[in-house]
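Hi R.,

As promised on Friday, here is the backbone we talked about, encoded as C-alpha cells. Could you run it through your design pipeline when you get a chance and send me back a sequence?
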C-alpha cells in the first residue's frame, strides 16, 4: 500500500515540530508518565506481550547510543524510535533491527516485527514504521451491500504469494492479482491497481503475509469487509499472534485449499460475517488512543533499558 502524499507531509511536519522542543522537556515528563503507566492494567498487560524479557541481560556490542539521522535511510523507523527514546537519557545503548525482521535476535533487540510465539522471545516490539502499517479506514458501506467476491492486490514476487495468486487468478469468486510499481519478471497474473476504497466494495479481503506481516491487515480489520487469511507467522505492535480465527478473521489453509468453501459459507451466513467484522473493529480500537499508545511504548522501552542495567 502506498502512503498518500498528504499523510506523509503531515507525518514529517509533526516530527519536524517536535524537534523544536528541547529534549530535557521530554525527559522531565518521564517519571510521571511511567507512574501513570504502572497504574494502568491495560498498559502493563500489553507491555508484557511486547517485551518478554524478565531477567537482566548484557547488551551486545551492537548496542550503541541512538542518533536519529533520517536522511541516511529508513527515516520513518528512525523518527518513530526517536519519538520514544527522547524521554530517556541520551547515552542509553540500544540494539535495533529495522525493517522486516523475521528472526529471533540472539540477544534482546528492538524490532518492528518478530516470529509469533516463543520463537520471537528476544524481539522487543515497538510501534515502528507506523505511517505504513497503522493505517485505518472509515468504511461507510454495509457488508450486505458489498460484492460477493474476494479481492487482493499487492506484490506477488514472494513464492508463497506467487503460488496463491496463480491458483486463484481466474477463480470466479476472486479478484486477485499482482500489482506493484516496480517491474517483476515472469509475472503473468497482473491486474490493474485498486485503491483501498475500491477494495472496500468487496465482502472479502485477503490478507497475505509478505516479507513479514500483511501490511493491509490493519485497515482490513477496521473495515466492514471480512478479513480472510492463513495463520499468522509473524507479528508487530498490532499483536497479530493474538488474533483469533472465527472471532476476528476467517482462517484458511496456507495453500488456500479451503478458500472457496469459506467464502461460500459466509455468503450464506451473513450474520456470522458481520459479527466477525464487529469483533475486528473492536480489536482495532485499542490502537487508536494516542496517549495510551505512548504510555505502552515508554513502558516497553523502560523495561528493555532496565533489564539491560542502564536505568
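Update: got your reply. Pasting your designed sequence below so it's all in one thread:
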Amino acid at each position: 500500500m502506498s502512503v498518500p502524499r498528504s499523510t506523509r507531509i503531515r507525518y514529517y511536519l509533526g516530527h519536524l515540530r517536535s524537534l523544536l522542543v528541547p529534549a530535557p522537556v521530554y525527559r522531565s515528563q518521564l517519571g510521571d508518565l511511567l507512574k501513570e503507566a504502572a497504574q494502568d492494567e491495560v498498559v502493563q498487560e500489553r507491555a508484557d506481550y511486547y517485551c518478554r524479557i524478565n531477567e537482566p541481560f548484557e547488551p551486545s556490542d551492537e548496542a550503541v547510543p541512538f542518533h536519529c539521522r533520517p536522511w541516511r535511510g529508513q527515516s520513518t523507523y528512525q523518527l518513530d524510535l526517536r519519538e520514544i527514546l527522547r524521554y530517556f537519557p541520551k547515552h542509553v545503548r540500544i540494539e535495533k533491527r529495522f525493517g522486516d525482521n523475521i528472526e529471533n535476535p540472539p540477544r534482546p533487540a528492538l524490532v518492528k516485527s518478530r516470529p509469533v510465539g516463543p520463537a520471537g522471545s528476544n524481539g522487543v516490539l515497538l510501534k515502528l514504521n507506523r505511517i505504513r502499517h497503522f493505517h485505518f479506514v472509515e468504511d461507510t458501506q454495509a457488508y450486505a451491500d458489498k460484492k460477493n467476491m474476494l479481492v487482493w492486490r499487492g506484490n506477488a514476487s514472494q513464492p508463497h504469494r506467487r503460488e496463491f495468486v496463480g491458483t486463484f487468478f481466474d477463480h470466479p469468486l476472486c479478484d486477485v492479482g499482482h500489482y506493484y510499481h516496480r517491474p517483476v519478471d515472469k509475472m503473468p497474473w497482473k491486474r490493474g491497481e485498486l485503491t483501498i476504497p475500491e477494495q472496500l466494495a468487496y465482502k472479502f479481503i485477503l490478507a497475505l503475509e509478505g516479507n513479514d506481516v500483511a501490511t493491509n491487515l490493519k485497515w482490513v480489520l477496521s473495515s466492514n469487509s471480512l478479513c480472510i487469511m492463513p495463520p499468522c507467522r509473524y507479528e508487530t505492535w498490532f499483536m497479530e499472534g493474538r488474533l483469533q480465527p472465527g472471532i476476528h478473521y476467517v482462517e484458511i489453509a496456507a495453500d488456500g485449499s479451503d478458500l472457496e468453501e469459506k467464502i461460500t459459507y459466509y455468503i450464506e451466513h451473513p450474520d456470522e460475517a458481520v459479527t466477525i467484522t464487529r469483533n475486528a473493529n473492536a480489536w482495532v480500537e485499542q490502537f487508536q488512543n494516542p496517549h495510551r499508545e505512548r504510555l505502552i511504548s515508554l513502558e516497553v522501552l523502560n523495561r528493555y533499558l532496565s533489564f539491560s542495567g542502564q536505568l
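One thing I noticed while checking it: The mean pLDDT is 92.

Thanks again,
M.
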